[in-house]
Amino acid sequence: MKSMTVTPPSDNRIAQLIDANLDRAREGLRVMEDWCRFGLKRSDFSIQIKDWRQQLGVHHHNIYRKARLTSNDPAMGVSHPLQKVRATPKAVFIANSSRVQEALRVIEEFTRSTDPKLCEIASKIRYETYEIEIKVINTTEGIEKRQALENCSVYLITSNRKNLEEIVLEALKAGVKIIQYREKFLHDFEKISQAKCIASICKKFNSLFIVNDRIDIALAVDADGVHLGQEDMPTKTARKLLGDERIIGRSTHCLEDIKNAEEEGCDYIGIGPIFRSETKKQLNPIGIDYLRKGFIQTPLPAFAIGGINSSNIKKLNQINNLRIAVSEAIINSNDPFSKTKELVKLLK
Q: 70-105: buried (b, 16+ CB within 10 Å) or exposed (e) per residue?
């Protein structure tokens, strides 16, 4: 392929700033590449970013390198206080992505007539970094959600109550880290309004907010994910609608259900009902022995569900790393805070 002609800038200062911004862009891309490689384990992202870095390297011509300004650079070593508050890898990635985009914009503006090929490449990469930034943010948030899920021990499933928001608030204060919004009676307008309110409360406590069944409502209120039953939408379809960053849970009632949930890429499962449940009266309890087998066989975070309360939870003591999902035990309690505290303590 025939390359475009590179004309040395008539002003050496322009060559200096092109050199500086090529360095800046490539350095920023390297930070982005390494986080995708080692932090996110996303070879597709890191390979793409590496290719951009190499493209810029090919066009980092000697006319720019020879003009390099170092010891006489008046801004050398100048930092900004905000650089010290990037406390998370996501913040570091975003800062370097912005750094790359800004550097590429400078390159575009100063190479339009003298180095059109570099100008074209800089423009193309700049727009592509906008897209990969969103993908990386979503991927990072997905990882953070799944890490939070691992640390959840008591999972509260809501039911229709006039003071539901107050109950949820008390449960969160007492240590619940995941709430599932389950509502079978209200109209959609009311469901969305109530779900938004509870989602907002969950965010204040850095807790996960899951919507039962309804992917449309989950998306409408920016929930952390959905929980699906055995007769609900296939996981593959749900994943296409929700994206990789959101959590998908699935109810399971036998070992085959558990295996299918794993193979489909679910993020967690509910196993039950363990005891007879007022919420799912039509389902027969699977029993503690079956629950133990399920917990042993799955690597997924698994929540025992169905009729669990402070009176019978001691029957599950022999199960390691026990997680429970409850509804009536907290929702119908006269003191949701104390009841939640009791359940959390019993699990510890």
A: eeeeeeeeeeeeeeeeeeebbebbbebbebbbebbe
What is the distance in angstroms between the CA of the first residue and the CA of the last residue of the chain?
66
Question: Tokens representing 258?
Answer: 């558990």
| CATH class of the domain comprising 12-142 | mainly alpha
- Out of 3.20.20.70, 3.40.309.10, 3.20.20.30, 3.40.50.170, which CATH number does the structure's domain 151-347 have? 3.20.20.70
Backbone angles phi and psi of 196, in degrees to 5:
-60, -40
Given a contact cutoff of 8 angstroms between Cβ atoms, the answer to whether 344 and 336 are in contact is: no
Structure tokens at 126: 């700049």
What's 254's DSSP letter?
S
CATH 3.20.20.70 domain range(s) in the chain: 151-347
Q: How far is CA 249 from the centre of its chain?
A: 15
Tens digits of residue pLDDT in 38-64: 999 999 999 999 999 999 999 999 999
Query: What's the pTM?
Result: 0.81
Contact (Cβ atoms closer than 8 angstroms) between residue 56 and residue 100: no
